[in-house]
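Reader question, answered in our methods column.
A reader sent in the components of a multi-part assembly and asked whether the whole thing could be modeled at once rather than chain by chain. We filled in our standard form and ran it. Here is what they sent:
COMPLEX SIZE: two components
ENTRIES:
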Amino acid sequence: MTTLIYDGTFEGLLTAVFEIYEHRLQHIKIEKGEWLATALFEDVIKVHTDDKRAGRVLQGLQKRLSAGAMQRLYAVHMAGMEGEDINIIGYIRYVIDSVQNVEEDYGNRYVLRLAEMVRMIRREKHRMEAFIRFQKLQDETFYSAIEPDFNILPLLGKHFKNRYTDQKWIIYDMRRNYGLFYNLHAIEFIALDFSTTRPDNVISTYTEDESLYQNLWKNYFHSVNIPARKNTKLHMRHIPKRYWRFLTEKI
Amino acid sequence: MNEERITEKLNILADAAKYDVSCSSSGSKRKNENKGLGNASNGICHTYTEDGRCVSLLKILLTNHCIFDCAYCVSRSSNDIKRAAFTVQEVVDLTINFYRRNYIEGLFLSSGIFKDADYTMERLVRVAKKLRTEHKFNGYIHLKSIPGASDELMREAGLYADRLSINLEIPTEAGLKLLAPEKNRQDMIKPMGFLNNEIIQHTEEKQLFKKAPMFAPAGQSTQMIIGATPETDQQVLYTSNYFYKSFNLKRVYYSGYVPVINDNRLPALHTSVPMVRENRLYQADWLMRFYGFKVNEIVDQQNPHLDLDIDPKLSWSLRNLQVFPIDINTADLQLILRVPGIGVQSAQKIVSARKFGRLDWEQLKKIGVALNRAKYFITCNSSKFERRDLTGNAIKQYILAQSQSKYLKNSVTQLNLF
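And here is the structure of the entire assembly that came back:
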């Protein structure tokens, strides 16, 4: 068993795959981040991200996968799901070791696992498209804070830019501490310093009619409920509790 | 805007609109090309009420004043309730401000009939027109087409709305006569036919000229109330089938009757809502639209009602055991779709995956097949499969004994068996 430690980037991961082939490694573990002292007792390789080596693995993948499958692979890695790097590497190795395109070989555990992860990411993205609640600030910017399970913020830009072309907006990932800011022309990545501007402090910068529409929305939400059909289980399945604190109607 | 007054109006007119179950915001392809506000594409459910239903659109009545006295309707003229009416501007402001905060996908506007059909329809169209032209709003708009309104107004509505709908409400003509004597079924069917022709014509124009205007791109839908009148599931599903086939409807919605009024023509006030039946009807509807089933395979003279204990696909399989078992590694997609426990996604995955090698039970389970049901009907790359010659009834009992169905607790007969 060999442990590979890489820097967490996609290029780093591809370099790690290159090393696996170069050293003909069979059983591996993969970890992100710093060289840990505890790792000294094991067989450890520190992966130095190398664009050339990563590029060769990328080329090999591009030859064997469709453009769509490449995008999905990239998105799955970017999402940063805990403990899944080993499955991503398993998938890459299976693709490279196969002669034909195996992206639809759902009988293979890695292909199936990747499909499952893609579905989880899509669902989280879709949930954010549904559950984001903008609050209108005095400078006419619409602000929203979220805490998605995975790192899917970059996947949200296109949807919100197409929809809200004529208003400035911010979507901020509180857990990963960065956000998207649309300035009426383009989207920028931003990081806010909440040591001076606390996130719950935005209320003081609401526009006048913000609380009016929040109250109207809450009222609407309660008016459309049919008590005779109460179904708490179904309700909870559709909006799990961890999302509630960002939903105007559930606060 | 007077906050108290608008809040009260919203409460009254949202409450009155909630029995219309249509919530879909999909099926349109309206793009935000004019640097305006919003777009409409695949549909998003922005929240869910405590009854587990999705909230996608701002669903309100323009007014709940109504000249009709339909027994099943909470807004019937003889019902002593608070009445209210929005102005056109109020609806526009609510829609735009809710939309900008990402609360909704758009507007679903319906109305009680005040004065006459044309007068009402004209108001609905005016709201849609204002949103589209003055506010460059490209979000989803669903308008009710009011039975008896003129063709010109219907056509104008189609130019601004994504979807139009007329609710049949009662599945049969006799039922409608009983509960809504002032309404005429032909008045509902006529505009459906007119709009269907307009949609077909505009679609053809759109294929020739890219710039041709869109006309109700998300099509038409309708709704039937279930359990207010004594129709069988066969009558309900044959009616749906007729409307799908003849008018190209995008959806038929089934709304379990919620007792709101004491009237001896209707189920009593504390009767429970037929939610299981409603669910089985939707499952049957899906079988017709996505699984290639014909309506007479789901219900017929011998089986006029859907089995409430098990889903309609399993019912069909148990009546047609001669079709099974099928070999998952060779059978056509159409046949795999007919196996209980296999959905559209799993079926497609199976057909893709088996090109790379024969599939076994473990792989089928991972792909997402519900083996507890499917195992009686398939064979795969394994020497283990159901060899006993079980009767349909025996299979049903085995499956029910194992299942965690959300409905079993409601079914007294099932519990008594053990």
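What stands out: The longest strand of chain B covers residues 220-226. Confidence is low (pLDDT under 50) at residues 410-418 of chain B.
Send us your own complexes using the same form.
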